[in-house]
Design goal:
Keywords: Membrane, Transmembrane, Transmembrane helix. This is Glycosyltransferase RgtA/B/C/D-like domain-containing protein. This protein is α+β, with helices and mostly antiparallel strands and 684 residues long. The chain is built from 25 helices and 9 strands. The longest helix is centred in the first third of the chain and has 40 residues. The termini are far apart.
Length: 684
């Protein structure tokens, strides 16, 4: 093997997760301490990233010759994989969104990022003393921002905003919005590295291309979603875990490079909880796998578990320290998950104690067990596929969600069933975005992999198969997301769609190798031709439907003009302004005014606001500040200002935005009309 290309390919595809994890390890404590600034970030972040590169990337072994399918590894797999990732990032940079008005998660994360980038601490002060004190007619919370006492807490976890903060420091709002496309490209590259390890380096470009073309991968990489960061961390953790387990080490031996890689893999897995609380479910198989390593007396067991514990500790602080109102909002689903996690920990501990002397049971005894396990994989996917024929899932548990689903149903001309969740369609969602051909090939591939694992032929697949299959099944059974698209596809992109692609590519590669090397009367030239035909046909069967789904929707930019409109809005406000939003506009714009414009802001909660506005304006005057009224239309401001008062329209955006569909993938954009009118109230 060409040692340089094999080593560089391995280290380069592990680097994105190592870099993001190293940054989070130092940036998160700075945020908790309230001292996150460009200076402290640079002073600690740059050395942390450099240390991660030396301590973790240095031990990464070269890609194994057996996986590459030949004695030497040429440069072209690395070059093509990197080219696919770079092209993906370039396209997403060109089509990046400007979603800043809070309607859904991207703007929530954008506002979160802007706040910590400029202020370096949480929570967000309400500054009610600069408006009207404790006046009961004012509200300080808004969509995705919880009013708690005299502060405001953002809804989500801090991991993704901490990554996007670097872009804000370097280039303001535009710099912040350009980071997700880059991170999305790193996700494609990391996935290529995982495919190179599990399928073979020569198959990495094809795997990376299939993910890059996927509509959901493009969509989440154009806005400030958390999924790109979570994807790099979790796929990268699988990469590091694979590398850590390429050499057997004894339990209780001295510290080696394999222990370092195992600890790094566990830490990166755990840091996924700093980005998304749902990562807790995805990490449960890792606990079971660490138990298996312990029983097998593998030296990597304790470093892996220790790294996972540290990362999970970060996640606990991120959730219960900086996002507790959000976790309380999720308590109906989170509390059972926490109990399940505790049960898994207890069960694994009991199993380790029980098997410590006996050792691991054989997966190939009795002889029929591997085949039964393989057929079980097919049966589970078949049952999930049959769900729409059996029942219709209902019950959002949230009236606002039901109202929205009913609205979308009316737009699409569907029967109005507001309580329908569409969860029974989840496997078909995956088929929309990666093609039903990919789903079918992946099902066969997963079954074969399970069969081979149990017969000890593919031990390197054990952890990836455990994590990916668990996540696929649990996510498809209960996506737990508002079911309109492309929104609902977010739930699939971190691990589910990559899993389908990975299993399918493995099967095509396995089939091609069987045709090329299997016994038969055909001459070598014909066998090679058959193998090449199978490889090309298999990749094409996956790529064509994936590309067709993506083609109809990925040629627009969402909310274009919002950055310039935000700047104009902020310039339109006096330096000593205290802003009162007098209509329902405050839900989407209150944190924009407070965080991006840097002015005290509140919304009016009263159903009969006129006397409240007069009183609040007077209170603002008494504090020596300029009262400014904001609304979505001038008519909402006119009753509270003297005749002839100038009402300005600094935020005026007429752009495209993401569509919402329920029974088919989106194939176009909807419109977005954003308006903010403001008026400084003159003295009488």
């Amino acid at each position: 093997m060409g040692s340089t290309s094999a080593r560089l390919f391995a280290r380069a595809t592990a680097a994105p997760a190592v870099v993001l994890a190293a940054w989070l390890v130092v940036a998160f404590p700075l945020l908790v301490a309230g001292v996150l600034t460009p200076l402290t970030g640079a002073l600690l972040g740059i050395p942390a990233v450099a240390a991660g590169a030396v301590l973790v990337l240095g031990p990464v072994p070269a890609l194994a010759g057996a996986a590459s399918g030949g004695a030497r590894l040429p440069w072209w797999p690395l070059v093509l994989t990197a080219a696919v990732a770079a092209a993906f990032a370039a396209v997403q940079l060109g089509y990046h969104s400007e979603i800043l008005v809070v309607r859904r998660d991207p703007a929530s994360y954008a506002q979160f990022t802007a706040w910590i980038a400029q202020n370096g601490h949480l929570p967000i002060p309400q500054q009610r003393g600069l408006i009207a004190g404790d006046d009961p007619s004012l509200v300080y919370g808004s969509l995705a921002y919880y009013e708690v006492g005299d502060v405001v807490w953002p809804q989500f976890l801090a991991g993704a905003p901490l990554v996007y903060t670097v872009g804000h420091w370097l280039g303001g709002l535009t710099g912040m919005l350009l980071v997700p496309p880059v991170v999305g490209g790193l996700g494609v590259f990391t996935f290529g590295g995982l495919a190179a390890r599990l399928v073979g380096p020569r198959w990495a470009p094809a795997a990376a291309l299939l993910l890059a073309v996927c509509q959901t991968q493009q969509w989440i990489s154009r806005s400030t979603y958390s999924e790109p960061v979570a994807q790099v961390l979790l796929l990268g953790a699988l990469v590091l875990a694979f590398d850590a387990l390429t050499r057997r080490t004894a339990l209780g031996g001295g510290w080696t490079r394999w222990h370092t890689l195992a600890a790094a893999a566990g830490l990166v897995f755990g840091l996924g909880l700093v980005v998304r609380i749902t990562a807790l479910r995805d990490l449960l198989p890792l606990v079971a796998f660490a138990g298996l390593l312990l029983v097998a007396r593998r030296g990597q067991a304790l470093p892996l578990a220790g790294g996972l514990a540290v990362g999970a500790g970060y996640g606990a602080v991120a959730g219960y320290g900086l996002s507790r109102p959000y976790l309380e909002h999720l308590s109906d689903s989170l509390v059972p998950l926490l109990w399940i996690s505790a049960a898994v920990l207890a069960g694994v501990a009991a199993a380790v104690a029980l098997l410590w002397r006996r050792g691991l049971p054989r997966g190939d005894r009795p002889r029929w067990l591997p085949a039964a396990a393989a057929w079980a994989v097919v049966a589970v996917l078949a049952l999930i596929a049959l769900r729409p024929l059996i029942y219709t899932d209902t019950g959002h548990g949230d009236q606002a969600t039901a109202d929205y689903i009913g609205q979308v149903q009316r737009i699409e001309g569907l029967a109005v069933q507001p309580d329908r969740t569409y969860y029974e369609m989840s496997l078909y969602w995956a088929g929309w975005y990666v093609g039903l051909s990919t789903v079918l090939l992946a099902t066969v591939g997963a079954a074969l992999i399970v069969h081979r694992i149990m017969r000890h032929r593919e031990p390197q697949w054990l952890l990836p198969a455990m994590v990916l299959s668990w996540t696929v099944v649990t996510t498809l059974l209960r996506p737990a997301i508002t079911p309109d698209h492309p929104w609902a596809s977010r739930r699939l992109i971190v691990l589910v769609l990559p899993a389908f692609i990975l299993f399918a590519v493995w099967f095509v590669a396995w089939l091609a190798r069987r045709l090329d090397t299997g016994p038969g009367a055909l001459r070598a030239e014909l066998r090679r031709a058959a193998a090449a035909t199978a490889a090309v046909a298999g990749v094409a069967a996956m790529l064509v439907p994936t590309a067709l789904t993506a083609a109809g929707v990925m040629t627009y930019r969402s909310d274009v003009g919002s950055v310039q409109a935000t700047r104009q809005l902020c310039r339109a406000l006096p330096d000593d302004a205290s802003v009162i939003v007098v209509d329902g506009l405050y839900g989407g714009y209150l944190q924009l005014l407070r965080g991006m414009c840097g002015v005290p802001a509140a919304g009016l909660a009263s159903s009969e606001p006129e006397p409240d506005v007069e009183r609040i304006v007077g209170e603002i005057r008494r504090r020596g500040r300029t009262p400014v009224l904001a609304a979505s239309e001038p008519r909402h401001i006119l009753p509270y200002v003297p005749p002839g008062t100038g009402i300005r329209h600094p935020f005026d955006v007429d752009a495209e935005r993401d569509a919402s569909t329920l029974m088919e993938p989106p194939a176009g954009a909807w419109g977005f009309d954003g308006d903010v009118w403001v008026a400084a109230v003159p003295r009488q």
